[in-house]
Design a protein that fits this description.
Layout (H helix, E strand, L loop, with lengths): L7 E8 L4 H12 L4 E7 L4 E6 L3 H10 L3 E4 L3 H38 L1 H10 L2 H16 L4 H12 L5 H22 L7 H25 L1 H7 L5 E5 L5 E5 L8 E4 L8 E6 L2 E4 L1 H4 L5 E3 L4 E2 L4 E2 L4 E7 L5 H13 L4 H30 L4 H14 L3 H20 L2 E3 L3 H7 L3 E4 L1 H5 L5 E7 L5 H12 L5 H9 L6 E7 L3 E6 L2 E6 L1 H6 L5 H12 L3 E7 L2 E9 L6 H10 L3 E5 L4 H11 L3 E3 L4 H8 L5 E5 L5 H6 L2 E5 L4 H6 L2 E3 L6 H35 L12 H20 L7
Parallel strand pairs: 15-22, 15-24, 22-23, 24-25, 25-26
Antiparallel strand pairs: 1-3, 1-4, 2-3, 5-6, 5-7, 7-13, 8-11, 8-13, 9-10, 9-12, 14-26, 16-21, 17-18, 18-19, 19-20, 20-21
Helix pairs in contact: 1-12, 3-4, 3-5, 3-8, 5-7, 5-8, 6-7, 7-8, 7-13, 8-27, 9-11, 12-13, 12-14, 13-26, 13-27, 14-26, 14-27, 15-26, 17-18, 26-27
Length: 732
């Protein structure tokens, strides 16, 4: 198979979608294109993801035939500009429509409320001329700012897939056509020009306010994108500097970074020392020192020194670009709950149209007259617009994921959000997850007659010649030891050397015994520390057992509080580790974890999770990858291996283990928010459609005019968007 025919993903920006029926219709149109394996359309972001072998031209043509416009998906910055332009167009159209609708509302509705106004219009203009003026104003609204509803709505009707635009077009068009017929026939019946015009004006107003609110929901992507500077100072071969666009940079370029500037690329420091603010990656508020040979990340802020860096990763390859892609994918998420909504909305609009027709026929049959029957039918069409249902899930996901991203929590897939909300047990790897993942000196325990500082200094001098992790931990505690002579490495047991005129032996009890030194005075202490999960190293000076140095993998400082927070959320806790049982139990006891399984191979961790529901696994290493992939939700530490991160559904960019509890809170809050939105959207339609149809009117109950129905419909969508935006301030 040629590469041209290879299966690939095409991203499209879709314009003109306003409700779930719209996105469902676009999805069906794309799915019918030859070569398309799967098409997924997101209403909140206006994005379509198409997997298959179809050509771009065929996809664009299918969307156009469905009554919408499409173009290739572009950068977040360009999308933001287009969103602002669309919001500006909606603002202009809404204000024009409202300006034209105000006289309509004043003359017609004001005349009912104020008889004096009605008489004044009749005496000055005459009711015939008044109706002509109303017709002109209504036509200007419908075929000016409101033309979009007819263009999209009629196209949807022709495709037998009516949507919200169809409802607005039918409702306002029917009111206008009936009123125009009354005007032409010079009949005495009432006209509804104000209903036709005000409906369109109010729907446009709701669209504009909704666009503004939805724009706020996408702030996470724009904020991340803004972290990359537009230009950089590149060092020429002759040593001079040139200002170049960041897009022109390539790996290997040498860049000068001044204090207060953001780094444009990922790179390595060649010259200079400074402190960098990397809180966007780690969540840690304190800057970190960086000097020659150390890697730095694009988007970080250079605090005080001048740095010369060599670019390693540029453009879409930087860590920041990867984070932006993760957030975009998360905001495109379609939860399982959305599938039910899509199926409902696919039949909802045709059912509403049938209800509107039935309402018209019932009122007409009851002798109410064409005008009253039309009024109720139009009100049903307008009040039932499924905008709120279509926005209920994607807008909450967008805001919830954006909040998570600002807290350094990246959801790599949408379903993880719903699964994490349902988690009842969190299982942890130990090394590198609950602990720092690197050994450190935990104690120096001298025998009487010896000083701790002396033992540490001499042990560090001896271990400076060893590459063993324990040796590096001891050396880290005393990085400038004296010189050692006659160093002898005893493979697998210890190291001996002469330091400051003394014979020093550092090693195991067996090592001391083989050298003719009785380790008994040190063994009791060594065994006690081993029972606490520490590794004991014995030291002898001049043939005399002098003390014990213990090395341990220290707990992450945030681990105790994180475990307590998860327990407070009602979650069960488990440790799955390949470490020794004694060490695992000691760490678990300090954290209050009762369920411990130690000595596990990667396949053992996988078996421990297989078949269990509601389990999240938190890990960081290559050996954790199978368990991360097998758990209902795999959560990887951002400091972990690339393989672990790729296997996980959630990535914690903060080094604070408390982010696990934050992720659970955000998932639960987002799912609760979606349920609230759905309850409002469905409840709104269940309650108000009968009212709009006039079911209660025969018993003196209320009914809705088309104008009030349009206002209520817009309010419903705004309520859903406003409720979702509450997630922006979630304390997690």
């Amino acid at each position: 198979m040629s590469s041209a025919a290879a299966e690939h993903t095409t991203s499209l920006a879709i314009e003109g979608m306003t409700c779930a029926a719209c996105s469902a219709r676009v999805g069906k149109a794309l799915s019918r294109v030859p070569g398309v394996a799967r098409a997924q359309v997101n209403l909140a972001t206006g994005r379509a993801e198409v997997l298959g072998r179809a050509r771009l031209e065929d996809l664009l043509a299918a969307v156009a035939e469905a009554g919408y416009s499409a173009r290739p998906w572009v950068s977040a910055e360009e999308r933001s500009a287009r969103e602002r332009a669309e919001a500006a167009r909606l603002r202009r159209d809404a204000l024009v429509a409202l300006g034209l609708a105000s006289p309509l509302l004043l003359v017609e509705m004001g005349g009912h409320l104020l008889p004096a106004l009605h008489h004044w219009v009749g005496q000055t203009l005459g009711h015939g001329l008044s109706r002509v003026i109303q017709a002109v104003l209504a036509a200007a609204i419908l075929f000016g700012p409101g033309a979009r509803f007819f263009r999209l709505g009629l196209a949807a009707l022709r495709a037998r897939a009516p949507d919200m635009n169809s409802l607005v077009a039918l409702g306002s068009g029917a009111a206008f056509a009936y009123s125009a017929a009354v005007l032409v026939l010079d009949a005495a019946a009432a006209v509804y020009f104000e209903s036709a015009g005000v409906i369109v004006a109010l729907v446009l107003l709701g669209r504009w306010l909704e666009a503004r609110a939805r724009g706020r929901a996408g702030e996470a992507i724009r904020a991340l994108t803004a972290l990359t500077p537009r230009s950089a100072r590149r060092l020429r071969p002759d040593g001079s500097l040139e200002e170049v666009p960041v897009a022109a940079l390539a790996p290997g370029d040498r860049l000068l970074i001044r204090p207060g500037e953001r780094l444009p690329v990922d790179g390595v420091v060649e010259e200079g020392h400074s402190w960098l603010d990397q809180s966007m990656f780690t969540g840690e508020p304190l800057p970190v020192p960086r000097g020659p040979g150390e890697e730095v990340l694009g988007g970080s802020v250079n605090r005080d020194g001048v740095l010369l860096i060599r670019a390693l990763r540029v453009g879409e390859e930087t860590r920041l670009a990867g984070i932006i892609r993760m957030v975009e994918q998360a905001e495109e998420a379609r939860l399982p709950i959305q599938a039910l909504i899509d199926r409902i909305t696919a039949v909802f609009v045709p059912v509403v149209m049938a209800l509107a027709a039935l309402t018209f026929l019932v009122w007409l049959g009851a002798g109410a007259g064409v005008g009253a029957a039309l009024t109720h039918a139009v009100a049903v069409l307008i009040i039932a617009c499924p905008c709120a249902m279509g926005l209920a899930t994607p807008i909450s996901i967008m805001v919830g994921m954006g909040r998570a991203a600002r807290l350094g929590i990246l959801f790599r897939e949408g379903e993880a959000l719903q699964r994490l909300a349902a988690v009842r047990l969190v299982a942890f790897d130990k090394t590198g997850t609950l602990t720092e993942g690197r050994p450190a000196l935990s104690a120096v325990l001298p025998r009487p007659g010896f000083e701790a500082e002396l033992l540490l200094r001499l042990a560090a001098a001896v271990e400076a010649q060893s590459e063993h992790p324990i040796a590096r931990a001891i050396l880290a505690a005393h990085p400038a030891p004296p010189a050692a002579e006659n160093v002898r490495i005893i493979v697998g047991q210890g190291v001996a050397a002469r330091v400051e005129g003394r014979e020093v032996l550092v090693g195991s009890a067996h090592c001391l015994g083989a050298a003719g030194i009785d380790p008994t005075p040190l063994q009791e202490v060594a065994e006690e520390r081993a029972a606490q999960g520490e590794t004991a190293v014995l030291i002898a000076l001049d043939g005399v057992p002098a003390g014990v140095l213990t090395v341990a993998d220290p707990l992450r400082p945030t681990a105790p509080a994180a475990i307590a927070a998860l327990r407070a959320l009602g979650l069960g806790l488990r440790m799955l580790t390949g470490d020794r049982a004694a060490t695992a139990r000691a760490i678990a006891a300090r954290l209050g974890i009762d369920d411990v399984q130690a000595g596990l191979l990667p396949e053992d961790k996988l078996a421990a999770l297989r078949g269990q529901k509601g389990v999240a696994f938190v890990g960081d290493g290559i050996n954790d990858a199978p368990a991360l992939a097998a758990a209902d939700v795999g959560i990887a530490m951002g400091s972990g291996t690339d393989i672990a991160i790729e296997a996980a559904a959630v990535v914690l960019m903060r080094q604070d283990l408390g982010a696990v509890a934050s992720a659970v809170r955000i998932a639960r809050a987002t799912l609760a928010n979606i349920r609230q939105n759905l309850a409002w959207a469905f409840g709104y339609n269940v309650v108000l459609i009968p009212v709009a149809a006039g079911v209660l009117a025969p018993w003196g109950g209320p009914s809705l005019s088309p104008v009030l129905a349009a206002a209520a419909m817009g309010l419903s969508s705004l309520c859903v968007v406003g409720n979702a935006l509450r997630l922006s301030w979630l304390r997690a």
